[in-house]
Amino acid sequence: MTYVKICGMTRREDVERAVELGVSALGFILVPGSPRRLSLETAAELASAVPPPVFRVAVMMDPGPVEVLEVERCGAFDTIQFHGSEDPSLLSGRSLGTIKAFSVETGKDLEKTGRYGHAGLFLLDSRKKNLAAGKPFDHSLLAGKILARPFLLAGGLGPENLAPALSTVRPFGVDLNSGVESAPGVKDREKMAAALAAVKQFDRSERRDHQ
């Protein structure tokens, strides 16, 4: 089953709908300047309502050690996603799972992943100034590449382009955000449902192909 993370959650009703649809993880953005940014208190309150086995991901960009400890100690999250230029040592020895995100524009950007082999997962996204560019990067850059960790594919993914992206890249999972929204931070119920249906259809076709 393809892992599906929906990021940029800001509303309880969207959290509940995503859980009903069967997502693998939900992301809560703590990055100042993001239109989907939440305070740690608000994010923790929303995340605490998410039942297992759905993973709760705190998304941070270039946090300091104290900020990371605050997230770990609040008890509301399972994973921290690091979305900046963090030193690899900051990801070591964490009490929560880790995702290291990379902005991809050229093949050289993929070379940076080699420094973070101890992360739980990688996330490959399009290059942007503020977390969400909302556009796919050139997936052909991944042709023939073997990365140190399984990765989530991100960047402008939605119901209309998930199937070809999955068929071409075959990632461990996908990260959805603006492609399932009606406005920043406001998830669209129909788009979320259509995206999950597209992933499930891909998974069914994969099983048939391997029977």
TrEMBL record:
Pathway: Amino-acid biosynthesis; L-tryptophan biosynthesis; L-tryptophan from chorismate: step 3/5
EC number(s) from the headed UniProt entry: 5.3.1.24
GO terms of biological process kind: L-tryptophan biosynthetic process
Annotated N-(5'phosphoribosyl) anthranilate isomerase (PRAI) domain residues: 4-195
EC category: isomerase
HAMAP family the record matches: PRAI
Protein name: phosphoribosylanthranilate isomerase
Organism whose genome encodes this protein: bioreactor metagenome
Gene expressing this chain: trpF_11
